Amino acid sequence: MADHLSKIALWDPDELTILVSRDAHPHDLIRELHAILVIDFGAPSIPGAGLLCVCGEPLAIPDSIAIAATTPGASTL
After folding, report:
1. Cα-flanking dihedrals φ and ψ of residue 7, to 5°?
2. Terminus-to-terminus CA distance in the chain, angstroms?
3. Is 30 exposed, middle or buried (0-12, 13-18, 19+ CB in 10 A)?
4. Can you give the pLDDT at residue 14?
5. DSSP character for 40?
6. Which parts of the chain register pLDDT below 70?
7. For labelling, which of 25, 55, 60, 74 has a CA lying 20 to 30 Å from the CA of 67?
Protein backbone atom coordinates (compact mmCIF):
# COMPACT_ATOMS: atom_id res chain seq x y z
CA MET A 1 0.00 0.00 0.00
CA ALA A 2 1.03 3.63 -0.47
CA ASP A 3 1.67 4.08 3.26
CA HIS A 4 4.88 6.07 2.74
CA LEU A 5 3.00 9.08 1.28
CA SER A 6 2.48 12.34 3.17
CA LYS A 7 -1.29 11.88 3.60
CA ILE A 8 -2.45 14.74 1.37
CA ALA A 9 -4.88 12.33 -0.26
CA LEU A 10 -6.32 9.49 1.82
CA TRP A 11 -8.14 6.50 0.40
CA ASP A 12 -11.13 5.36 2.44
CA PRO A 13 -11.84 1.80 1.21
CA ASP A 14 -15.16 1.63 3.09
CA GLU A 15 -16.54 4.65 1.24
CA LEU A 16 -14.64 4.19 -2.03
CA THR A 17 -13.70 7.85 -1.92
CA ILE A 18 -10.47 9.76 -1.62
CA LEU A 19 -10.45 12.60 0.89
CA VAL A 20 -8.22 15.55 -0.02
CA SER A 21 -6.60 18.04 2.33
CA ARG A 22 -7.76 21.58 1.52
CA ASP A 23 -4.26 23.03 1.70
CA ALA A 24 -2.76 20.46 -0.67
CA HIS A 25 -0.75 21.78 -3.60
CA PRO A 26 -2.36 20.45 -6.82
CA HIS A 27 0.89 18.88 -8.06
CA ASP A 28 1.43 17.03 -4.78
CA LEU A 29 -2.19 15.90 -4.85
CA ILE A 30 -1.91 14.52 -8.37
CA ARG A 31 1.29 12.64 -7.43
CA GLU A 32 -0.44 11.05 -4.43
CA LEU A 33 -3.60 10.24 -6.38
CA HIS A 34 -1.44 8.52 -9.00
CA ALA A 35 0.32 6.46 -6.30
CA ILE A 36 -2.98 5.47 -4.66
CA LEU A 37 -4.50 4.47 -8.01
CA VAL A 38 -1.45 2.46 -9.11
CA ILE A 39 -0.29 0.93 -5.80
CA ASP A 40 -3.57 0.42 -3.92
CA PHE A 41 -6.06 -0.04 -6.77
CA GLY A 42 -3.77 -1.62 -9.37
CA ALA A 43 -4.45 0.95 -12.10
CA PRO A 44 -2.04 0.93 -15.05
CA SER A 45 0.88 3.37 -14.91
CA ILE A 46 1.60 4.65 -18.41
CA PRO A 47 4.07 7.57 -18.62
CA GLY A 48 2.33 10.69 -19.94
CA ALA A 49 -1.15 9.16 -19.74
CA GLY A 50 -2.27 11.09 -16.66
CA LEU A 51 -4.45 9.45 -14.01
CA LEU A 52 -6.04 6.19 -15.09
CA CYS A 53 -8.86 4.13 -13.59
CA VAL A 54 -8.24 0.44 -12.86
CA CYS A 55 -10.18 -0.22 -16.08
CA GLY A 56 -7.62 1.86 -18.02
CA GLU A 57 -9.94 4.82 -18.75
CA PRO A 58 -8.64 8.35 -18.07
CA LEU A 59 -9.88 10.04 -14.90
CA ALA A 60 -11.09 13.63 -15.11
CA ILE A 61 -9.64 16.12 -12.64
CA PRO A 62 -12.29 18.49 -11.21
CA ASP A 63 -12.04 21.98 -12.72
CA SER A 64 -11.15 23.58 -9.37
CA ILE A 65 -8.03 21.41 -9.12
CA ALA A 66 -7.14 21.61 -12.81
CA ILE A 67 -7.30 25.45 -12.74
CA ALA A 68 -5.06 25.63 -9.66
CA ALA A 69 -2.57 23.24 -11.27
CA THR A 70 -2.14 25.56 -14.26
CA THR A 71 -1.51 28.68 -12.17
CA PRO A 72 1.59 30.54 -13.42
CA GLY A 73 4.60 29.92 -11.21
CA ALA A 74 3.38 26.54 -9.93
CA SER A 75 6.01 23.83 -9.88
CA THR A 76 5.74 21.08 -12.48
CA LEU A 77 5.38 17.36 -11.89
Report:
1. 70, 35
2. 22
3. buried
4. 67
5. I
6. 1-3, 11-16, 64-77
7. 55
Helix (H, G, I), strand (E, B) or coil at 19: strand
Phi-psi group of 31: left, alpha or beta (phi > 0 → left; psi -120 to 50 → alpha; rest → beta): alpha
pLDDT at site 68: 55
Classified as helix, coil or strand, 9 is strand
> Do 51 and 61 form a contact (C-beta atoms < 8 A)?
yes
Closest CA to 9 of 66, 41, 38, 30: 30
Whole-model pTM? 0.57
Three-class SS state of 20? strand
Measured in whole angstroms, the distance separating CA 9 from the mean position of its chain's CA atoms is 7
Calpha distance 7→3 (Å, rounded): 8
